Amino acid sequence: MTKISRHATNDFCPQTLFLYGTYKEDKTPDFGLFCWFSYCWDGELGAMMCIGGEKLTKDRIKAGNVFSANLVTEKLLPMADYLGNKSGYDADKMNFNAEICKGAVPDVPVLAESPVNFEAEVTKSIPLDDGEVFLCKIRIERI
Q: Which pTM value belongs to this model?
């Protein structure tokens, strides 16, 4: 059997879904659905994520350098589907019911129903042709 080269696709890299939370300029919460999220090490566990194209969530992350990453579970799939198919620039995007609380360390909105929430601070961004990679520190409340 000979080796077969394939065109590059993401068919073989299943990704966990996260709802990234930021605040709009008027301080109302905004959440967007993303999956290009992974982990990195720089003296401590961090996160790296990529957002392609123009999106309100990316604009807000760049404006404040903080966001929450809220794990999508089966229970949150309807919300994730809605948020993933609605532009953040639409004025009525956030017209849905969800318990939203404030992050413990950075000022970010967090989804109470998500069992895993990361509060992240961007430490470096790398612009790409049609996207941007963000390297982040995971911030936690120190007790």
A: 0.89
